[in-house]
Design a protein that fits this description.
heterodimer, A: 470 residues, 16 helices, 32% helix, 17% strand, B: 160 residues, seven-stranded mixed sheet, 7 helices, 7 strands
Chain lengths: 470, 160
């Protein structure tokens, strides 16, 4: 019987499947400080151990300050959570990349760069952006704390089998440096909606996907959850195998693994998906979100929509747009390029990898950040930071007036010192523009790294297709 | 289950408004509860009573995997969220810890139920009675696995 890639990975990990439930074996469990403390408490309470300490890896990313690492953490509750993770990892025997480790970073950045993320594996983490790892052909789910505890204790997760959703991305972008992977995924979410993928595992396919680098593929898979999907997947290819070769935790008998992956990890040509969507990318523009969910996005050449125009006859959508515009303090009809900004954040598990920083640096080189803007670059991991510094990117950003910071989730989610003040407007390379996401009353516009960099220089959004990025 | 309705006529109520990020560092559930819905409704905490239901639109609980979201609602007294649809991680988190029931209702019920209405929810009959309006609505039955986890009282009590 012909199968999709998802079905192949699923079937090879099923321990039990009956009565609507599947017990799925978990190959890699990534743990961070925010969604794990209660899970470890639960283990202690019930006298349980971590079943596979060798398949469990932890780091601290959500709470950590991105300023000077030699200073103590001032926020007591953050410090407590970070210390709790240290204590739990020690007690239960789990590998931890702590705040001073050269491998510390955002969990979804370090998984792939350490070769923990591998094709054909199942990966879970108490974080919704676990979908990122799907870029390597891994079936990767975000889970809550009860499931974290269940996986720690049993190395299995109990699930219902998701449906399959094919998203075919085809065509050639005229300027792939200006119209990026971020613009592709924002275009998709804008079209299928924030619940367009609910209950499904998306497989991204098509010629455009093959052309993307691994880091670009991660940006796409990362935001699958923003369309409501359980996971996003891309079949591994030579780029995937090349990327993972020689990484810290990549298999020792690497060529043998590659042969297996190459042979087994693709959707059969006659396999059927439950749902399908096609995106042509020839004419897509850089995207800018204007509202309070990622589907509320438009072209940089566009205008802030009128709620009735956005709602297209759906009163709920119209109401949602009205509320969003109030929160964002935007007038319908305003040109996107007329929106001025106060802050710029280049970072997060969506866009904080080396290529993101290299692309943003091209825009910034030799320029100055607008005097009205405070801009920061937060590399996704210590390794990204080190590699970027070897290329001199830190100097480019710093001499332009950007802050160059230590790795972590930073201003993506408003739970560490990097936050927006009420009313501040931010061009952000992160993944969520929800109300208050980057700080109470803060206003988020989701964009690509090059769009964020250009906005920092000009003080407002600009169409990066007009810049020389090659 | 009997209780009264707190209605938000809104789709995509995300986990960041249900329990904003800064509070994810709080471990005490009663304290978490004081911040429930703070991103959307600052008065929720003063208004909510034990046994209340939230009624909302599509894709309730979208966003983060934080179990703190259903925990905060549960410890503030919410017994069930009645929504047109749910984001899957929230849905699962709600039942895993037996925090609250995520119940899918149809457009008719969503439009008909008003803020402060008294409801009686009976999941054995897949039915909601609106005691204020004297009406009955059907609810979407739980998927098999979810129904069994609910019946057992959470993931760790569920024995297949």
């Amino acid at each position: 019987m012909s199968k999709t890639l998802f079905e192949k990975i699923w079937d090879s990990h099923v321990v039990v499947q009956e009565d609507g439930r599947s017990l799925l074996y978990v190959d890699r469990h990534l743990v961070h400080e925010v969604t794990s403390p209660q899970a470890f408490d639960g283990l202690r309470l019930n006298g349980r151990k971590v079943r596979r300490t060798d398949l469990t890896f932890a780091t601290m990313d959500h709470n950590v300050p991105t300023s000077d690492r030699s200073l103590p953490i001032i926020d007591q509750t953050s410090s407590t959570q970070i210390k709790a993770l240290e204590k739990n990892c020690k007690e239960f025997g789990i590998t931890l990349f702590d705040i001073n480790s050269p491998n510390q970073g955002i969990v979804h950045v370090i998984g792939p760069e350490l070769g923990i993320t591998l094709p054909g594996t199942t990966i879970v983490c108490g974080d919704s952006h676990t979908s990122t790892h799907g870029a390597f052909g891994a079936l990767a789910f975000g889970i809550g704390t009860s499931d974290v505890e269940h996986v720690l204790a049993t190395q299995c997760i109990m699930m219902e089998k998701p449906k399959t959703f094919e998203i075919k991305i085809q065509g050639k972008r005229k300027n792939p440096h200006a119209v990026t992977a971020k613009d592709i995924i924002l275009s998709i979410i804008r079209k299928i909606g924030t619940a367009g993928g609910t209950g499904t595992v998306i497989e991204y396919r098509g010629e455009t996907i093959s052309e993307l680098t691994m880091e670009q593929r991660m940006t796409i898979c990362n935001m699958s959850i923003e369309a409501g999907a359980r996971a996003g997947l891309i079949a591994p290819d030579e780029k995937t195998f090349q990327y993972l070769r020689g990484r810290k935790y990549s298999p020792e008998n690497y060529d043998e693994s590659v042969n297996y992956w190459r042979e087994n990890l693709k959707t059969d040509s006659s396999a059927k998906f439950d749902k399908s969507f096609i995106l042509g990318v020839e004419n897509i523009a850089p995207q800018v979100s204007w509202g309070t969910n990622p589907a509320m996005t438009t072209d940089v050449t566009g205008t802030v929509p009128f709620p009735e125009e956005y709602g297209k006859g759906n009163p709920e959508e119209e109401k949602g747009a009205t509320k969003a515009l109030q929160y964002m303090n935007l007038q319908p009809g305003t040109a996107i390029t007329d929106i001025t900004i106060d802050r710029v954040f280049i970072g997060s598990c969506t866009n904080s990898r080396l290529e993101d920083l290299m692309e943003a640096a091209k825009v910034v080189k030799g320029k100055k950040v607008s005097t009205k803007v405070r801009a920061m670059v937060v590399p996704g991991s210590q390794l990204v930071k080190k590699n970027a510094e070897e290329l001199g990117l830190d100097k480019i950003f710093k001499s332009a007036g950007f802050e160059w910071r230590e790795s972590g989730c930073s201003m993506c989610l408003g739970m560490n010192p990097d936050i927006l003040s009420a009313g501040e407007r931010c061009a952000s390379t992160s993944n969520r523009n929800f109300e208050g996401r980057q700080g109470t009353g803060g206003r988020t516009h989701l964009v690509s790294p090059v769009m964020a960099a250009a906005a920092a220089i000009h003080g407002h959004f600009v169409d990066v297709r007009e810049l020389d990025l090659n | 289950m009997k209780g009264s309705v707190i209605k938000y006529e809104r789709d995509n109520i995300d986990t960041d408004v249900i329990l904003p990020g800064p509070y994810l560092k709080i471990h005490d559930y009663a304290e978490l509860a004081t911040h429930a819905m703070e991103g959307l409704d600052k008065d929720f905490h003063k208004r909510v009573k034990p046994g209340d239901f939230i009624v909302a639109g599509k894709n309730f609980g979208c966003g983060s995997s934080r179990e703190h979201a259903p925990i905060a609602l549960s410890y503030s007294g919410i017994k069930a969220v009645l929504a047109l649809s749910f984001a899957r991680i929230f849905y699962r988190n709600a039942v895993d810890g037996a925090f609250l029931l995520p119940i899918e209702i149809d457009e008719n019920a969503y439009r008909d139920i008003s803020d402060s209405d008294s409801l009686e929810v009976d999941i054995s009959k897949n039915e909601i009675q609106n005691l204020t309006k004297n009406k009955v609505y059907k609810i979407k039955p739980f998927p098999e696995l979810i129904g069994k986890i609910i019946e057992a009282g959470g993931l760790f009590n569920y024995k297949p």
